[in-house]
Amino acid sequence: MVHRRLQSLLFACGLAAASAIIGTPALAATWLVHDVRVFDGEKMHEHRSVLVNGARIADDNFQGKAPAGATVIDGKGRTLLPGLIDSHVHAYRYFDLPLYFGVTTQIDMFTGVQAMQEVTARMARGDNAGQADLFSAGTLATAPGGHGTEYGMPIPTLTKPEEAQAWVDARVAEGSYFIKIVMEQGHPGRAFASLDIATVKALIAAAHKRGKLAVVHISNLADARAALEAGADGLVHLFVGNRISQQDLDSFTQLAKSRKAFVIPTFSVMESIAGVRATDIIGDAAFSSLLDKAQKQQLAHPYNPQAKPELLAAPQAVTAALSKAGVPVLAGTDAGNNGTQYGASLHHELQSLTQAGLTPLQALASATSVPAQAFKLPQRGRIAKGYKADLLLVDGDPSADIATTRRIVDVWKDGVSVAPLRKQQLALVAQEALPSSGLALPADGRISLFGNDKMGSPFGAGWMPSHDAFLGGKSTVDIKLVGDAVQVNANVAAGFAYPWAGLAFMPGRQPMQAANLSAAKVLKFRVRGDGQQYNVAVMSGGNNIPASLPFQAGGEWREVSMALADFKGTDVSAISMIAFNAGPKSGSYRFEITDVRLLAQ
C-alpha cells in the first residue's frame, strides 16, 4: 500500500523542507558501553563491552580498561542492539523521527526522486547523523492507471515486456537502490489496472541484469504466488484474510522457500486495514511524549473505523509457516499510512511478529541482520567490528519480552548520541501540549519580515519557494526581493496532476512541522500582480490535503483579508504551512506580496 498522506506532498516545499532536522548532533567520539547484554543481530551475549571510535564499532567484545579519554556508559541490566531497520516505509516527511525510537535505517518503497537523491548524497558525505539512513526504490513500476498513480505524482508507467529494460535503466540512472513492482487489482469500488505477469517477469529480469533486487507489492495469494514464480527476490506485503487452507499455506510456504525469497508481512498496515489500533504504542507514555499532535493523529486513526481482527488470521498463519520453514521474514511497517508512524510503529511490528509465531530473538533479527542481508545493506544490522555505530540501548532483556525495545535509554547514529535531539523533541511536544492560546503573535501580526536581502520571519522555519518539480513536475518559480516585498515569478507547467508554484511560510520550528496558531483569526496581506487568480493554501496536521481560498492579484496594490475559519477543515492549533500559489492552470504568473500578517481579529 502507498499512503494516502502522500497527497500532502503535493503542497510541500521540496526535500530541503521535508528533510530538515532539529538541532545539530555532537561530533562522534570514543566511548564504551561497559558490561552490557549484547544482541549482535543473531544471538544474545551476556556481559560484554562494546567500544566505539568515531562512526564505527572498534571492538564488539572489548576486554580490559577503557581507553584514556573514552566516555564509559553503564550497561548493567541493559541490552545493546544494532540500530533497527524498518524494511517498508514511504519516506516523505519526519526524516529525524525514526531516530528517536531507535530506527536508524529505513527501506523506502516509493518516494520522490529528489528526496531519495538528497538523502543518498547526505549519506555519501557522511553527513546524515541527524536523521535515518534511507535505501529507496524511488519510483515504483506500475501500469497506466495502476496503484501508485492515484496520488498526483507523475509516474512513468509501462504496459509491455519490451519496455521493461528501459524503465529499469531509467530508475538505476536516478539512483534507485532496488526495483519495486506493483501487482494490484484493488478491491470492489476501487479497481486498479495492473501489470500483466509477462511484464512483471521482464521487469524482474531487467533488474537482475543491472544487479538490482526486484521486490513486488501484492495483496492476494494468487499475485503473491505469481510474483515468486516470476523470480521476485521478495514480497513487500502479505495479504489480509480470515482464513487460508492448509493446502494453500503449505504450497505457498514451499514456493517461497524454494525460490529463496524474503517476505515483509507489514502487520502494522494490515492491522490498520482491519481496523485494529496499535494500542501498545499509542498508550505508551514514553512514546507519546515524542509525538506531536499531528503524528499522534496519524498513528491513532486506522483506515477501517470498524475493528475486524479476524482479517489477520491468514497473514498470521502465513508468517508463522514462513518463519518455521526458514524463509526470511523482515520487519516493515508501511509507515506513512494511517494507523502507522515512522519509528514508533516498528516496535509494534515486532510485537505483532511475535504474536504471529516468531520468537523475540527472531523478531529482533527481522529488524536488524535479516533485512541488512536481504537488501545487501552495507555494514549495518549487526554489532561487529568495523560496522556502523548505529546502536540502540534499552533497559531489560528484549529476548525475554519484546516490549522491552520500547524502554529506550539512548540511540546512536554514526556514533553520535541522539539524546540531544530527543530532548528537543520532548520539549517541543510538551510545549504543544500546554494549555495555550497558541504561539504568541507579533504585536503588529506581521510574519513577513522582508528586506535587507532576506526573507525573515518572527518565528518558525520561515519563507521559502514552493513548486512541484521535486515531485517530478515541471513547474518553476523565481523569488526576488523588491524592497519590502517579494516578487514571485512562476511558470506552472502541465505534466503533473496538480501543478503549482509559489511562496510558502512554514510556522513550525522545522518545515512542515505543525505550529499552534490558534491565537490568529485573520490572515491579511497586500498583493499586486498580473491580474490572474491565485490561491492561499493552508495545511494542518489532520488534513490529507490543504484547504484553499482564491485571491486576485491586480495591477495595483490591494489588501486581502481572509478569516482562518473559512479554510474549511483546518486545525488552527496544528498549522504546518501557509502557501501563496499559482496554478493549477498552466502558464506564466507574476505577483508581489508584502505585509503578511496573522491577526487576532
UniProtKB/TrEMBL annotation:
InterPro entries: Amidohydro-rel, Galactose-bd-like_sf, Metal-dep_hydrolase_composite, Metal_Hydrolase, Metallo-dep_Hydrolase, NADH-UbQ_OxRdtase-assoc_prot30. This is Amidohydrolase family protein. The keyword Hydrolase applies. Residues 462-570 form the NADH:ubiquinone oxidoreductase intermediate-associated protein domain. It holds the Pfam family CIA30. Residues 79-416 form the Amidohydrolase-related domain. Keywords: Hydrolase, Signal. It comes from Pseudoduganella rivuli. Residues 1-28 form the signal peptide. Gene3D superfamilies: Amidohydrolase, Galactose-binding lectin, Urease, subunit C, domain 1. One of its GO terms (molecular function) is hydrolase activity, acting on carbon-nitrogen (but not peptide) bonds. It comes from the Bacteria.
